[in-house]
Backbone:
C-alpha cells in the first residue's frame, strides 16, 4: 500500500493494460478508418492516408479503452488493420455493385450477396488483388515511421 502511495505521489502511477477493452477500442478506431477507406474508394482512389487512418485510429482506440498501448497492442492493431483493409475493399466492391445494378431494383444486401459470384471473374479478381496490393503498399509506406516511433517509445516506457 505504501508503494502505491509513493507511486501516486511521485507521478509514476501508470495505468494497467486491459487487453479485451483495448481490442474493442482498436476495432472501433479501425472502423472509423475503414469508413474513410470506403469513401475514398468510392471516389475512385486508393490512398495511403486511408490505410494510415485505419492503423492510427486502431492504435488510438486501443490506447483509450485499453489503458495503454503495449507492443502486444500494436501487433494486434496491425493485424486487425490488415484484415480491415480487406473488409473495406469488399465493402467498396459491394457498394459499387449496388450503384451499378440499382436500376434493376437490387437491394444493397443483394449486391453484397453477389460478391462471391463476381469474384469468379478473372478480370475482377485481378482488379481487387491489384487494389489490395497497392492499398497495402501505400498503407505500410504511410504508417511505417509512425508505427516504428510508437513501437520504440513503448519499448522505452516498459524498460523504465
Residues:
Amino acid at each position: 500500500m505504501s508503494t502505491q502511495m509513493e507511486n501516486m505521489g511521485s507521478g509514476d502511477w501508470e495505468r494497467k493494460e486491459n487487453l479485451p477493452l483495448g481490442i474493442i477500442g482498436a476495432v472501433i478506431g479501425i472502423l472509423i478508418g475503414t469508413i474513410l477507406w470506403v469513401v475514398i474508394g468510392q471516389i475512385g482512389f486508393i490512398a495511403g492516408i486511408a490505410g494510415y487512418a485505419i492503423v492510427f485510429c486502431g492504435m488510438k482506440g486501443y490506447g483509450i479503452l485499453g489503458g495503454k498501448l503495449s507492443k502486444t497492442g500494436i501487433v494486434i492493431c496491425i493485424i486487425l488493420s490488415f484484415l480491415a483493409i480487406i473488409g473495406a475493399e469488399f465493402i467498396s466492391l459491394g457498394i459499387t455493385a449496388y450503384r451499378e445494378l440499382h436500376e434493376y431494383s437490387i437491394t444493397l444486401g443483394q449486391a453484397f450477396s453477389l460478391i462471391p459470384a463476381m469474384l469468379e471473374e478473372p478480370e475482377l479478381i485481378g482488379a481487387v488483388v491489384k487494389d489490395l496490393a497497392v492499398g497495402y503498399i501505400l498503407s505500410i509506406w504511410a504508417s511505417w515511421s509512425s508505427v516504428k516511433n510508437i513501437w520504440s517509445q513503448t519499448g522505452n516506457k516498459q524498460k523504465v
Remarks:
- Residues 1-12 have pLDDT under 50 and may be disordered.
- The first helix runs from residue 2 to 10.
- The radius of gyration is 20 Å.
